[in-house]
Amino acid sequence: MRELDVVVIGAGQAGLSAAFHLRRAGLEPDDGFVVLDHAPRPGGAWQFRWPSLTYGKVHGMHALPGMELTGADPDRPSSEVIGAYFAAYEERFGLRVHRPVEVSAVREGPGGRLLVETSEGTYAPRALINATGTWDRPFWPRYPGQETFRGRQLHTVNYPGPEEFAGQRVLVVGGGASGTQHLMEIAGHAAATFWVTRSEPVFREGPFTEEWGRSAVAMVEERVRNGLPPRSVVSVTGLPVTDAVRRAREQGVLDRLPMFDRITPSGAEWDDGRSVEADVILWATGFRPAVDHLAPLRLREPGGGIRAEDTRAVRDRRVHLVGYGPSASTIGANRAGRTAVRSVMRLLEEAGRRRNAERAGAVAP
Ligand SMILES: Cc1cc2nc3c(=O)[nH]c(=O)nc-3n(C[C@H](O)[C@H](O)[C@H](O)COP(=O)(O)OP(=O)(O)OC[C@H]3O[C@@H](n4cnc5c(N)ncnc54)[C@H](O)[C@@H]3O)c2cc1C
């Protein structure tokens, strides 16, 4: 068991931002803190995103604190661009990320410490910064008849790019940014595409203003403060209308059907008698926070979410959640890293004062 001040789980945008601020606050990697990540390479979840998601197609990647991302080729896959940028960042600030290291559980430890159980042994920190994102927990809803479908079913997490769907009939489920991007790519290759969403998609004209972003973040923040499972920031901002989206709408690629009532061996059916035939169902139904390893700490509220104020878990002030709920965007993750480190440093100072007072008490006559 290794004692140190802080363990950061996850080396995506949120974890690296936290690590940067921990260094600035005076903690040393591998001494005061350690960053653990189970992915094989730098890049957080970006390293796994499909090759056709080029850097030019991402919605606005905010640079990590202290180092800009400049001169990136917009036609290169974002997995490569951001992977290389994160690798350079880790190197520049000497963050010494341990990978691949799986964190399986975090539980209560001795003397007010936490125990972080990992594939490289157990750490016993005074505070935890959890930055595990959502990519590891794809959400697949269940519908009647799903197991009878004879075609292929896959999720955004396994989306290989559009070429594999040449000549096929593809049913895309989900009204978020991933669903619309998949449709726009696949439509040029597939024999037919269909789009099914639970609610009417909201398209937003005009630039993504700061005020619009702030109000979306405030809505997610409110849910997290009330202990409800967070919604993605994108789900409350609506779908930005780019030139590509405008063209796709004109061509009918983004004509949406309501949610089907059941899946059949060859497609999907609605109670009103409509049906579609499909070779593929692509579930672009989003992700949930990857926080199962925190279960032993019992942080969840009856509403199903972890209640957090700023980044601090209300049920355990040693635990900070960054990239969670309102901070699940590149800009939000950056800020959350800084907020969490401020709070962690206060906690460490308090703990230090308490230890000094106890020692002074122990030697007092
Ligand atoms: C398809 C897609 C496109 C997006 N596009 C944009 C965009 O254009 N702009 C934007 O601002 N946001 C975008 N987002 C949101 C984006 O996910 C966040 O902005 C941000 O990149 C998330 O950073 P993160 O550090 O929270 O998570 P991640 O990048 O997911 O990093 C989490 C890290 O934790 C590690 N990890 C997880 N569990 C464990 C464990 N148990 N043990 C050890 N390590 C673990 C993972 O390996 C990973 O490296 C997009 C999201 C998706 C799904």
Account of the 3D structure:
The protein is of the alpha/beta class. Helices cover 27% and strands 21% of the residues. The mean pLDDT is 93. It has helices spanning 13-24, 78-92, 177-186, 210-225, 233-237, 243-250, 330-363; strands at 2-9, 33-36, 103-108, 114-118, 121-130, 152-155, 169-173, 192-197, 203-204, 239-240, 256-258, 262-264, 267-269, 275-277, 280-283, 308-309, 312-313, 319-321. Strands 1, 2, 3, 4, 5 and 18 form a six-stranded mixed sheet that branches. Strands 6-15-7-8-11 form a five-stranded parallel sheet, with helices on one face. Strands 12-13-14 form a three-stranded antiparallel sheet, with no helix packed on it. The radius of gyration is 23 Å and the shape is elongated. It contains seven helices and 18 strands. It folds into two domains: 2-136 and 288-363, 3-Layer(bba) Sandwich (FAD/NAD(P)-binding domain); 146-202 and 238-283, FAD/NAD(P)-binding domain (3-Layer(bba) Sandwich). Flavin-adenine dinucleotide binds at residues 9-15, 36-39, 44-45, 49, 58-61, 102-103, 131-133, 135-136, 178, 287, 290, 293, 323, 328-330, 333.
